Structures are given as structure tokens and as C-alpha cells.
Amino acid sequence: MGRYKRPEIKLVPVPSPNIIPERDVDKFPVLEALNLGIDFGGLTAVEEFNMAIGCTEIAGLIGPNGAGKTTVFNLLTKVYQPTRGTILLNGHDTYNMNTVQVNKAGIARTFQNIRLFSNLSVEDNVKLGMHNHIKYGMWSGILRLPAYRKGEKQAHERALELLSIFDMQDLASQRAGSLPYGAQRKLEIVRALASGPSLLLLDEPAAGMNPSETDELMENIVKVRDAFKIAIMLIEHDMNLVMGICEGICVLNFGKIIAKGTPSQIQNNPEVIEAYLGKKKEN
Amino acid sequence: MKRISKTAHSNLYTYGFVIIAYAVLMLITATGGISSSLKGQLVPICAYVVMAVSLNLTVGVLGELSLGHAGFMSVGAFTGVVACISLEALIPLAPLRMAISMVIGALCAGMAGALIGIPVLRLRGDYLAIVTLAFGEIIKNIINCLYVGTDSRGLHISFLTNSDALNLGEDGRVIIDGPMGISGITKISTFTTGIILILVTLFIVLNLVNSRSGRAIMALRDNRIAAESVGIPVTKYKMMAFVISAALAGAAGTLYAMNYSTIIATKFNFNTSILILVFVVLGGLGNVLGSIIAAAVLTVIPELLREFDDYRMLVYAIVLILVMIATNNAVFKSMLRRVLGKIRPSITKDVKEGP
Questions:
Q1: Which domains does chain A show, CATH number per domain?
Q2: Looking at this predicted complex, what is its ipTM?
């Protein structure tokens, strides 16, 4: 893929109407998507996607199946290179970045179909999340230099600390693939958190969880946001969860944003109701 | 902390196994209880063990299929021997010369690995296998057309012609004579050198696997997309595993070549690559001790089967099939587990914890 340098564009942060209502208006948004779009061949999957997320906001991205929600996540993390538009992460254009660089710049994500390192232990999964924060190289590792011991000791302690958010520290030595489904989802969140993001993208975190697990997850998402002071954006079909914890919601249908606003605004929006339930028959 | 000590434990078993095997074999050799044909196999076995462990790093730990591992062995063998012959006057001490030759062989093979890795590691799965296979053949053919000689003015290299084109001085000596390979090598490989190389290889591979870099390499094997999403640079770690694997194969090549008086490029052909892959697969992907045992046993078996004469390879094939059936058989596995469980209780515990 050719990554040529694009001429610098002067970008003026555009305040609302393109912005989901923010918790922290006084601060620069952590993420801004300006006129984002992608075509696959002749098919336009996402277009005119505009939004901004505040530094410590919990934002929801909802919409019917096939609306392009996961595609938006893939655009933000540069799994796909956008055809149009700009992504500003903490004020920096991510145009020339790839997935790895975007993660280093501050976006971590989870996946709709769980993607753990299933043959490795739970602890190793978390340590891999903090890969770029462990400071020793290949030779220290092979020759077991003091840097190795220090780095591994710190990583071990930090991993257990992160796992304790979800009460999983006792599972640290288990194989990640052998965990029950709900625990795997939680582990994926811990791994993403371990990479020290300023924005966490959660792709259907509650999928496959029972109501009590979902309640626990809701509490934990808020807890994570408060403890780490980061922004969280989630795709979710469980409306209880979305309406319960999201401060701003963005509704996507056929690749376009059809509504943005607070949970109560979204609940009463006729277009949203139409997208989910269909149009009333006219006679 | 418990888990770290557990892997350290199993690593100790691997080192211990090699050292005990060495002690036992030295004892048998000293008392004369070993046939001369088997004695001649000791150094090749060491070389194959190193090859298997290093290929296991690419196939088992990184999860990429490489069919050209003999190519790196070849690079290491020829550069190592050329280095050894050139240094003969400079360093009279054989073990030191051997060690330096192995390091040079490893460096050259590592460089070849890096050179191949740059284009090849962008490919995945079958394509990578095909390209590495082609690479092995290319190396073989290049060395077949290579003439290298040495005289008081230094090394002379020539392609495609014959050894006369080297313009050697009166004191000159042809080292690589095209398709005739290298002849007149002073055999300075010993079983002890081989065992030391195995231990160094184990040290590098096991420590790498249990470090930050090794975790990243295994993460690429398990889930490349997830690895990228947490900021692990894919090409860097693929390259790391591939180059280290190639360098170790190069050292093994030097060890192997210095055990014979003549060595030709066609020895390191596709069949050798496949043979080593068989060691790795039968020993278990990612299982280092398994690779060691498989390489040793499968090198010895053809020797032991000499009495079957023409049917030797047939019996060999049957043994391979039986091993594969046995290791996939649930009854056999549980039996093995019961036996091993008495020696090492942690094994049965591990299995119960599994899925």
C-alpha cells in the first residue's frame, strides 16, 4: 500500500453541530473524524462520518446490522485506509499511520469476534498489551541481563494490577483460549487497556453475556473510564447498556449518520425508530 | 511468579536431557560399546538437532512454514569452511578456529536470512513456503557455480567458469571448486563441539521464547490482527525469528561440513529441508525437547535399519506413520501421561487445566 506524504492541511477544529454532546467541552476532543468515508470498489460503505469524542466521554455507536459500525472502527484504527476525510487523534492527523502506529498514538480496541492470543497464558496476553511499555530489547531477553528481570518484574506486577480490575488475577496462569466466553471478552478489554490508550474502542463488549454479566460490565466500563481518565467508544446492540452508560450516541444506517445526541434525544428520534423498526404503513 | 518458575523448570529438563545424553554417550564411546557407523553419526545428529530446534523457531513459534532451511545450512557450511581454511595459518588452535568459523557461518546465514526475509516475510502461508523452497534451490545452484580460492593475496572468487579463472598465485589453493564442492577439509568437528552448539542454541531459543520478543513472535502466530492492534510491529518480529533461525542453521551447517573431508552443495537439497521439517513436526510444533528427540532418533533409525537393505526406507516410512498414529491416539496418550505423571506430576496437572 502506497503511503505517500500528503500535503499538510490547515485543520481548524470544528465545534458542533458535528460533535456528540461532550462531558468536557473545555478540553480538546480526543478524536475527531471529519468527513470520513470509504469505498470498497463501487460500494460506499461509510460516508460523511463526522464526529468528535471528548477526553473522558463514553460514546455509543449504534445502528442496524450492516450499517457500517465495525467499518468505522476499522477506519479509526487504520485496518482500512479511508478513501476520504481526516482523522485527528489528540490533534494529530493519522493519515500516514498504520495500525501499529495508531495504537502507539493512543487508540486500543477489542474485536467483535474475540481475538485473543489463545495459546498463551492470560498474563502473557496482558503483557503483550503493554508490549511497547516494557523497556528491554531482544539481547537483554536472550542474555537475561538485569534489564530483563526488571522489565519482567514490573510487567508482571502491572499485569496483575490490570487483571484485578475485572477480578481476574487468579486466572493469570491459565491458557487464554480455555477461559469461559465472558472472561475472554473481559481479558480482551484488559489487554487493550494495557497498551495505555487515550481512546478505547469496544466492539460489542456485551455480546454473549447474560443480564447480570452485562450489568457488571456496565459498572466496569464506567469504573475504567473514571480510573484511567480515558474516552471510550462502544458498538453495542444491548440498548440497556447503551442508554445506561453512554453520554453521547451516534446512530449509523447504511453508512451514514442519521442521528446524534444524548440517549433521551436518540430514543425519541423518529428517524432512528424508523431505521430500527421500519416505517409505519401509509394508507 | 509460579508460571515463570514452571517454564524455567521445563527448560532445565531440556538442558538436563542434553547434558545427560552427552555424558552417557561419552561413557559408551569410551568403553567401546558403540558401533563405528553410529559413532560417525554423532556429529551429524548434533547438527540436525540444532537444525530442528532452529526450524522450530520459524515453524512452531512464529507459525510460518519454511521449506528452504537446508539453504541456510548450506550458506553456513560453505562460508564456515572457507573461513576455517583461510584462518588455518592464523589460528592454529582447532577448537578456537572451529568456534570462529561457526560464528562466521552463522553471521553469513543470518545475513542471507535477512536478505530473503525482506521480500518473503510479506507473504503468508503457502506462498512463503513456495518462495523459501525456491530459495533453497537457488542457493544450491549458486554454490554449484561458485569457485573460491585463496593465496597470499587473499580470497579470490569467480562465477560460472572454472578454477583457472581464479588467477591464484603459486601458493594458492582452490577451496570451493564449483560442483565438486570443497574437498580436503580437516575434520575438526567433534561430538563435544556439537553438544556445545546445541546448548548455545537452546540457550538462545528458550530465552528468546520466554522474553518480551518471544511473546510478540508467538502473538503473531496466534493472531496477527490482534497483535497489530496492540502495537506489535509484525515485520520486525517475523524478521527477528527468521534471521535467528537462519543464523543457527548456518552454525549447524558449519558443524556438519567440518565433519566430512568433502562437502558438495547438492547435499543441502530439498530432501534435507523436508527431513528437518519432519523432525520438527514429529517432535511437536513449538516443542523444543520434542525436536531434539525426534532429530536424534530419526537420524539413528536409518542406520539401525541397515540390515533391511533395500527395504530400509520402506521400514523408515512405516516407523514414521506409526509414530504419527501413536501420538494422535487418545488411549496411547493417556497411557503415556500416566507413566510420565509418576515422574513429573506437573504434566498431568497441566492437562487437567487444559480445555
A1: 16-106+197-278 (3.40.50.300), 119-194 (no CATH)
A2: 0.86
